[in-house]
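re: ur question from earlier - yeah i can do the single chain one, its not a big deal. heres the input i used so u can compare w yours
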Amino acid sequence: MVCPRIGLLSSFLLMKCGPFLIQDLLKWVLVSIIQFVIGRRFYMAAYKAVRHWSTNMDVLVVLGTSASYFYSVGALFYGAFTGFRPPIYFETSAMIITFVLFGKYLEVIAKGKTSDAIKKLVELAPATALLLVKDEVWGTSYADESMVTGESEPVSKEVSSSVVGGTMNLYGVLHIQATRVGSNTVLSQIISLVETAQMSKAAILKFADYG
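and the output i got, formated as tokens:
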């Protein structure tokens, strides 16, 4: 699309190699690499989906790009042997594959950032705790709960107050009664929700696969 507008390249691309124009042959070669080498992953995924009698986004990409590619090949030969050159759409399949792969690349980056966020959440959990078997719950203090609420203002804590594991005790001394541990804690549930969101597909992706 750009090279024909450059003087020297334009004259070269309009030269003929047998019955074909140089520019058409170059398009064919370059797009073939994108279609069957770079885009091989779509064919593999589409084959697995069709083999199990289902469809997904990969099947849609393969159908759209293959239709554009093979129509263009047919049009190229038709024009070469009849003298009438119908339009060819090699760039369409190349652009579709490029945009889809770019979207997947952005998705990988987003998931990587989510993984980093999960690691930071895990680091918020206290590594050790002192267990008091026979003692009353007592003390007053202020806790920094910004990791859960986002609010930087310290929150007053007394005997009857609930405390979120992983939050920071700021000033006083508190004896805390553990009511939830392990996977039942607020922090663990947040991590679980983030992991579930990371692994699940957005509604628009499910709709695209269904379509």
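The longest helix spans residues 90-124. not sure if urs matches, ping me
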